[in-house]
């Protein structure tokens, strides 16, 4: 059996909601893939003036993405730096603690509960792209190739950069960890250089977590929000295969129009975009992945 279905699964699961400063819609679609390996979080008003959203794109199985979806918010809320409103440090620590939890006997057992196969070991991982909004400040933490785009003056302002093995700094870290890059893949295998999970690449006891061949340590971009900022578009890498960032924003803006923004309108925007991005067949490969979109409208 290949990686694709004979016909795509177009069914969508969409959640909408609102908070003090945001309205959101989060929509996911399995598409052409045999299984769904994406997960996501959406928590407006998680704390005083704080909202958190995240996309987790699984690879090698769904289990790590599901694990992070279940535990990320709880660990963030327990984090002392989060309580002290040191959100950059809190996000970094929460990304890393996901790996720590995965390595515990309890984490190993939980992973097995999420798996769709009967193998004893999990070689799964997931990318992670998390947006935290505190008052008028946006933090985006990224490990991997899921992305966040801010619609600023109706133009894309990119809030994350993909982590690929052949990027100069990423390749240096990989080689220091006694790995190699071949065909833009680590050890000729994985085409990502940062992710949660993928624990077989993180077993060098002489290296700290951010020094391993693959690391969960995120890059974080911080920006002050203003009247020129309309919404944040988040998605797994499948969302960005066929349209440019500007084309994606144009599509959303065309759906929103000039009408008052509601949860129902945001749901239509996310679901219409998923239909637009889905490939008509699997001949080219792009537009065939699982797709998850979170659209966060910023109230003025």
Protein described:
- The protein starts with a strand and ends with a strand.
- The protein is globular, with a radius of gyration of 19 Å.
- A six-stranded antiparallel beta sheet has the order 1-2-14-13-7-8, with helices on one face. Strands 3, 4, 5, 6, 11 and 12 form a six-stranded antiparallel beta sheet that branches.
- The protein has a single domain, classed as PPM-type phosphatase domain (Phosphatase 2c, domain 1, 4-Layer Sandwich), CATH 3.60.40.
- The protein contains seven helices and 14 strands.
- The model has no long low-confidence stretch (mean pLDDT 94).
- Strand 5 (125-134) and strand 6 (137-143) form a beta hairpin.
- By secondary structure, it is of the alpha+beta class.
């Amino acid at each position: 059996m290949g990686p694709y279905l004979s016909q795509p699964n177009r069914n969508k699961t969409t959640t909408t909601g609102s908070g003090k400063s945001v309205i959101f819609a989060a929509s996911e679609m399995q598409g052409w893939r045999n299984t769904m390996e994406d997960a996501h979080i959406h928590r407006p008003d998680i704390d005083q003036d704080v909202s958190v959203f995240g996309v987790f794109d699984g690879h090698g199985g769904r289990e790590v993405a599901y694990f992070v979806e279940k535990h990320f918010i709880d660990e963030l809320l327990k984090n002392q730096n989060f309580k002290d409103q040191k959100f950059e440090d809190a996000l970094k620590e929460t990304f890393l603690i996901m790996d720590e939890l995965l390595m515990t006997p309890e984490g190993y057992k939980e992973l097995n509960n999420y798996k769709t196969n009967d193998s004893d070991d999990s070689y799964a991982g997931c990318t992670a792209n998390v947006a935290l909004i505190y008052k008028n400040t946006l933090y985006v933490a990224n490990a991997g190739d899921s992305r966040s785009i801010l619609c600023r003056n109706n133009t894309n302002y990119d809030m994350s950069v993909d982590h690929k093995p052949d990027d100069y700094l990423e390749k240096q870290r990989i080689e220091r960890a006694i790995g190699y890059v071949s065909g833009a893949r680590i050890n000729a295998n994985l085409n990502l250089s940062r992710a949660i999970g993928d624990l077989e690449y993180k077993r060098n006891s002489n290296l700290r977590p951010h020094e391993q061949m693959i690391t969960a340590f995120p890059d974080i971009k911080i920006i002050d929000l203003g009247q020129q900022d309309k919404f944040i578009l988040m998605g797994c890498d499948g969302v960005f295969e066929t349209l440019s960032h500007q084309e994606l924003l144009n599509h959303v803006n065309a759906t929103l129009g000039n009408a008052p923004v509601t949860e129902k309108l945001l749901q239509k925007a996310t679901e219409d975009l998923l239909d637009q991005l889905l490939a008509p067949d699997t001949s080219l490969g792009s537009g065939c992945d699982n797709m998850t979109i979170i659209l966060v409208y910023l109230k003025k």
